[in-house]
Amino acid sequence: MTRTFEDYFSELQADMVSIGLEYINNKADYIYIYSACENNMFSFDLFYKINGKFLRIHKVNDAGNGVNYNVSMNRMMKVLEIGVDDLEKIYNLCKSHNREMPTEMKMVYNVQTGSFEAKYCYDLQYSNKENLISDDIFDQWFDEVANNND
């Protein structure tokens, strides 16, 4: 059976989820993955819901769940690097299949059930605005999720 664009696209998203899971040894409730691609600039970041708390990648040891996660700088940087690599592969996949590349992907993975949701945007989110970068959009999403899930 021939693999389709969607198969490759899903596989790359699954890799983003896998690297997020590996980072926390599968010990989280949810993984929230953000990626952006505007003007050939790639951005990737993630945060977690662990033990009822929303935590950025470097703060997972604040979960209070008795787990001591390895949050070394090398490990964090490797996770982000792999995420950007996957995003670049998605960009190249879209390009080779004449598909529009999302400018933004917000993905949520429920670790307990294995359910996955993704929202895609195709409009510029930050590169057409002064004093706004992808990190700002990620921070806004983190705040929005954390404040609406008390």
How would you sum up this structure, described in words?
The protein is an alpha+beta fold. It has one domain: Murine Class I Major Histocompatibility Complex, H2-DB, Chain A, domain 1, CATH 3.30.500. The protein is built from three helices and five strands. Strand 1 and strand 2 form a beta hairpin. The radius of gyration is 16 Å and the shape is globular.
CATH architecture title: 2-Layer Sandwich
Residue fraction in strands: 15-25%
Count of extended strands: 5
Stated plainly, the CATH topology is called Murine Class I Major Histocompatibility Complex, H2-DB, Chain A, domain 1
User: What is the averaged pLDDT score?
Assistant: 95
**pLDDT < 50 runs, ≥5 residues:** none
Apparent shape: globular
Protein name: DUF600 domain-containing protein
Defining key terms:
150 residues; alpha+beta; Murine Class I Major Histocompatibility Complex, H2-DB, Chain A, domain 1; five-stranded antiparallel beta sheet; 5 strands; globular; DUF600 domain-containing protein
What's this, in brief?
This is DUF600 domain-containing protein. With 150 residues, this protein is of the alpha+beta class.
Itemize the secondary structure elements and their pairings.
Layout: H1 5-23, E1 30-38, E2 41-50, E3 53-56, H2 73-96, E4 104-110, E5 116-121, H3 134-147
Antiparallel strand pairs: 1-2, 1-4, 2-3, 4-5
